[in-house]
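Ticket #4471: structure export looks truncated?
Reporter: QA, pipeline team
Priority: medium

Steps to reproduce: submit the single chain below to the structure queue and open the exported record.
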Amino acid sequence: MSVSAQIHYELSARKTRTDDWSLELATEDRGLAVSTAESMIAQGQAIGVKVTKETLDPESREFLTVTILTLGDQTQSKKSKIRENREPLCVAPQDIYSAHARDRIGRLLEGWLETNGVTPFELLHRADLAELLESSGTDLQHAIQKVAIPEAKARGTSVHHLVRSFQNLTDRSIRRLTKDKSQNAFPDLEKVPFADAAERVCHESERTYLLGCAVAGFMARLGTRTEKIQRLLDLASSAPPAGPPRALALSVIEQALSEQMGRRGGLDDLLGAGHDLGGKLALMTRLAFYRNVEALIKAEPLVAKAMPPISHACTRLAQLLASEDFQDVRIALAKNVLAELVGPRRLRPNDPKGEIEIIRALAMALIAGAADSILPDDIQEAFTIRSRMLVTADFIEGYLKSSRYAFDDAMNLIYLVENVIGAANKRQAARYLSAGISGLRFENEFRFSAESSPARLRALAKLHRSLAVCGLAPEDFRPIQTKLAEIAAQVESDCKLIQQLARAQKAPVQRLILLLEMATGEAAPLGPVSEKAATEAIKLARQNELRAELAKNPEQTAQVMILLQQVTRTAAA
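Actual output as written to the record:
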């Protein structure tokens, strides 16, 4: 599957056993599709329903279908073919203004729209753009063919019939738009305040279309997306104060704004210069979920560090989007972020550690803000795909390039393991970690280092403990822990540390505490060294001299008792 795939969900239903499956709903909201399916079965509106996930591959332009829910009777009685439901989903000009139709138009005409710097909303509401598309010839014809071929296959009719049907629909839609434009049917927002225009068309049957044409015309002379967004913000600020006119005005603004914000890679002028992709995605996430991210910035230093400063224009937009009237825009922005996350571009091209940090910060911000907008499964899928880039050989080489010591490599790889998601990605990171710790460089660094042997054993113990809590499966981290324990045994054997402690001139309590720390995994990895230290500690604890010293120092007695209990639990485990 292409990483830049676009996804929607389709609900199909059957009313009787002899019926074909008919499309009831197409939406980008998985939860809505599932809940509607459950409701249809519960209310007896259908005998069987199914929800499918439709993923468009932008290279082949084909949909891959995965069924995610089936309820009720899925079997079908044999019957003669019937010619029901053969008409295209869009049969009248009004039909192409729905959210699903606009999304489909955006995908079919993606190249033409990008070339002309416009969105489906603008195309459908501006006569000059419609005429320009019509005159292009091949762009429009290819789009009609791309939609007619799969539609004909799904409905069991001829491609030629559907091509003619869609061509007729296109012609009627363009004639309607140009006729209304010539008759001045749309309010002129250069002359009429936006609130007055909304009041004027509010009771018309085609009110959304009429006000949409007025808004699109008001943006027609603007070149950049930032200018268009600013113009839409101005209109939103001047919307009617309450009632149906306000609802109409904001719904039209939301349509236009969601498409402007949902386009990939074109928000550079709005977000400001000097940001890499990670910074841009951080700002986009902050725009989409302003209140939640601002609270997270105050609570999480990592998120505060990753979030670039936000401009006045972006703050103004973010505050507008924080209202309940613009959820579709927030969803469009969040999906834009997810689409970039599954793309091939690095977030921090020259900073591997910064790449890991920005990914973690984005994950925290999206999870905190997107609970009501996008599914956690979609967030997890996007970050799983992004995590694959962190466990490639090229990334690992750049990530470890600045490390001077094998121990630093190991700790950096553990940090990587903690921040990638997906079992396969963690397992791949564990392979790099295992290879590093099993290498001769790592062993020599610990056996022949100028560091004291207790310091080296403590470092090995730190690695040993970190492995158990970094998110690896037991079968992945336990062999690495075993290798660390073997190296620790070599280090201890080289210098006879435990034997030296048993005979040292230090106070008995100090020697006992050090041995107990080794036995509990604090000062040495659990394994041969910790077991040897535990045996020696028990011998030392039985000496009368030590007991007498402990009796004089209750604080040390408490510390020793706690460590002895930990040794007992460790031995039992």
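Status: closed, not a bug. The export was complete when the record was re-opened. Leaving a note from the reviewer for reference: Residues 482 and 527 are 8 Å apart (CA to CA).
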